[in-house]
Specification:
By secondary structure, the protein is an alpha/beta fold. It has a domain of about 130 residues: P-loop containing nucleotide triphosphate hydrolases (Rossmann fold, 3-Layer(aba) Sandwich), CATH 3.40.50.300. It is about 25% helix and about 25% strand. The protein has 4 helices and 12 strands. The strands form 4 sheets. The chain has a 6-stranded parallel beta sheet, with helices on both faces. The longest helix is centred in the C-terminal third of the chain and has 15 residues. It is elongated and about 60 Å long. Bound molecules: zinc ion. The site of zinc ion has 8 residues, from helix 4.
Length: about 200
């Protein structure tokens, strides 16, 4: 389990990234850290890209429906408008932001905020997703979470798309995606290729 650095012993202002496949519990982990922050009576603000409207426009909601109020923004620069007295800034679904999210997170950390970013590290093709590689490179702390492979029960690192849609972003849940380990992910893709080629 990730243990938070102490505000008393560490200079304020750093970046934490929580990454992993779908169904690995990224949002739950983000919510867990933010709830602890609130219990400690520190102030929190949460942002997410405006396009992620799976459940609610105003809340960060995990798959098990634990939620926390959030603000949907269209561009990372809007996060810089956050008030200076806010201790901790949570950012969910960071993979959907453009590359400027990295510079925004670095600026926030320099201003003294603790920045906790959650996002998918790989897209459905198994390729690094959007700005996530850059964020992982500049973060002080990284937590890579795993799901359980739907096929073999090993640790899952990949998000497998059950349909043959080719766009990078197709919003959906268990109807479209499942978590798979590297090997079952690869086997599924080979099978898919055979099917689409007839
Ligand atoms: Zn597997």
């Amino acid at each position: 389990m990730f243990l938070e650095p102490s505000f008393l012993t560490q200079r304020r202002g750093w970046i934490e990234v929580i990454c992993g496949s779908m169904f690995s519990g990224k949002t739950e982990e983000l919510i867990r850290r933010l709830k602890r922050v609130r219990i400690a009576e520190q102030s929190v603000e949460i942002f997410k890209p405006a396009r992620d409207t799976r459940y609610s426009v105003d809340e960060v909601v995990s798959h098990d429906a634990r939620s926390i109020a959030s603000r949907a923004v269209h561009h990372p620069s809007e996060i810089l408008e956050v008030a200076s007295h806010i201790d901790v800034i949570g950012i969910d679904e960071a993979q959907f932001f453009d590359e400027s999210i990295k510079a925004v997170c670095e600026e926030l950390a320099l201003r003294g905020h603790r920045v906790i970013v959650a996002g998918l590290d790989m897209d459905f093709r198994g390729r690094p997703f959007g700005p996530m590689p850059e964020l992982l490179a500049v973060a002080e702390y990284i937590t890579k979470l795993h799901a359980i492979c739907n096929h073999c029960g090993n640790l899952a690192t990949h998000t497998y798309r059950l349909t043959t849609d080719a766009e990078t972003v197709v919003l959906g849940e268990k109807d479209i995606y499942e978590a798979r380990c590297r090997h079952c992910f690869n086997e599924g893709n080979i099978l898919k290729l055979k099917v689409t080629k007839g």
